[in-house]
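Q: Fold this one first, please.
A: Sequence and structure below.
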Amino acid sequence: MISISCRNVWKSFGRKAVLRGVNLDVKAGETLVVMGQSGTGKSVLLKHFVGLLVADQGQVLVDGADVARLSRRKLFELRMRFGMVFQGAALFDSLSVEDNVGLALSEHTEMSDEEILGIVDGKLSMVGLAGVGDKFPAQLSGGMKKRVGFARAIAMNPECVLYDEPTTGLDPIMADVINNLIIKLARELKITSVVVTHDLASAYKVADRIAMLHEGSVIFTGTPDEIRQTTVPIVRQFIEGSAEGPIMVGSTE
């Protein structure tokens, strides 16, 4: 399991400051949900955890190691410890389900085709998709594509899985299936999970703790019960979904 710490992390793109002094800890083995309006830097923050982006100022520490100071080899090794579930599944349309799930195993290990297929079948079974390995993404529903993305994310037995808006575009029932899957994988694989979402039902169900990002900074961290009871005006407005309050409509960057 992986622990992650952000210490005064700043990141700008041109003149646009996206992260503004983020301080955040992700404990080993927990499921942390990062919430906030669109454009507040949630996905940008995830990319710092694996060194896809480097902070302009501050530190991102994974198990105490400064990601920005890792050698190319060490950074590659770090990334192998993470799995990523993308917002739109990001499957390769020209590859079958089993080839999508087994891609990293094919590229980064010396396993035989039979060994890879055995692992792929196991991961697909874990996400409730046994027997669909020969299908192609165009033959799958939105919820099935999401679950194939989950299987791919865990194919290399990661210590941490990063989820970027995992329930976006799903109906409430399928969204709950995905929520249950996040909980199942965290429990059975004993991994650290970081879930970026603005879906409150999902956040309340899967989170051990919730962090709220606003205008590039973390303004609240606490359990689902604590966020429900908070009196912080910005957080209250967000969880109540109200147009009235300190968050001005159209003010996100």
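Q: Good. Now the second chain.
A: Here it is, same layout.
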Amino acid sequence: MFRPARILGLAAAPIGLALAGCQPLPHPFADSQLPPDAPILQVADTVGILVEPVAHAPADSQLADAMAKALQDREIPADTRAANRQSFRLTGDASQSRVAAGAAMVEIQWTLANAKGQPVGSDVQRTTIAATDWTQGTAEMLAPLAKAEAPRIAAMIQEAPPVERNPERQIFIRPTEGAPGDGRAALPRSLAFLLTRAGVKVTPDSQTVDAVTVAPIVDLSTSGSGKQHVRIVWHIYRPDGTEAGQVSQENDVPNGSLDGSWGDIGMAVATAGVDQIMGVVKTIPLKNPIVN
């Protein structure tokens, strides 16, 4: 499992002692670095949704892919392949009846179940769609159908356990630098999901007053034997732009593992780092703290 290998930070200085930038610090967690063959692709036990193929949809329908994308767009980790012991399962059962030339009335029974297989919500979606869109069934053609239903599915998910936080603190997350595949957006999206579900305010505006900035950077290098070494560093910056600390994670992965969709990989990495990231954020004082 991919977990933080080390944490670097700037401790509070005694009165009268000035700190000039980020100074090298010992690595007290260096001995917890994962061995080279540790499975980075082992997904952490995080809340997400596995979207299963929709029953009775056309044989080549990509409706499940369209739904997974629609949920991701709403900051819900979703995938049609990767799952873990805590994942929800979303199933659909479709039927259609032609109501006019070139159009079909589609009815889909959506059911969301928890990891134990217990239903937590259901909804019947009824819509009219072009017959060719339904029969050809590409993810692009079915995107409007999935987008219309995604808010109802998202509302069924139970609240995730909270993490310790600063209630008034806002966080801006930069796109990932150096990430292959869709990691540039997938990694920040996963961290934003975890923070938002825990009640931490994530702002899309880099100019938000007194916001802390989290900037993930990915570095890939060849490690031999068909593997790449991946190192992910989360840089945490104070509102004034100075660096408050870093959370570092690294491991070896099979060549090309991160070249496409990150799926639940981004969620696993963000889950492994979120507590340490918030640990650094908590050391940054608020400019105008709210006093009850």
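Q: Anything worth noting on the second one?
A: The domain at 49-154 is CATH 3.40.50.10610 (Rossmann fold).
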